[in-house]
Amino acid sequence: MLEIFNNFVKKYPDFISIKSAGSDRIQKELFSLGLEWRARMLYDMSEVIVREYNGKLPIEKEKLMNLPGIGEYIASAVLCFGFNLPEPILDTNTVRIIGRVYGLKITDSSRRKKIFKEIMQKLVDCVNPKQFSLSMLDFAALVCLPKNPLCFDCSLNKLCRYFQNM
Asked: Disulfide-capable partner of 79 in 6, 43, 51, 87 (CB 3.0 to 4.6 Å)?
């Protein structure tokens, strides 16, 4: 899969080259990854970016979210990971950490709740938002696990309401 991705990026290094290749070509290139509908969206997005933004990805969240296939999570991820901007990344993993540390109830819709977004916004507003967000994801994968979290080894356990209530 990584080889296919690397070859794709080498062949199509920008939105102009994706648009120039045409929708059918892009779909064929990504077919083996099972990304047929995403390939179409990538092509459609490239058309808009070339037409409206001279081939350059906009860095305003609202403009990103108006592109085909881009919702709030992807827009936030692009801004944070692509441009190192303090944009909160709220997914199952980061919500789990926030919920446990702050003693908030976690549900399937927590990533859309205002309180989680406000907390994450304060946390990510730091010197290196990209590194912070990547660290949160790593922390969730290695320590603050969905089942059997490693609370006794956790460096946050003195602050964590989940640990305090064990």
From this structure: 87
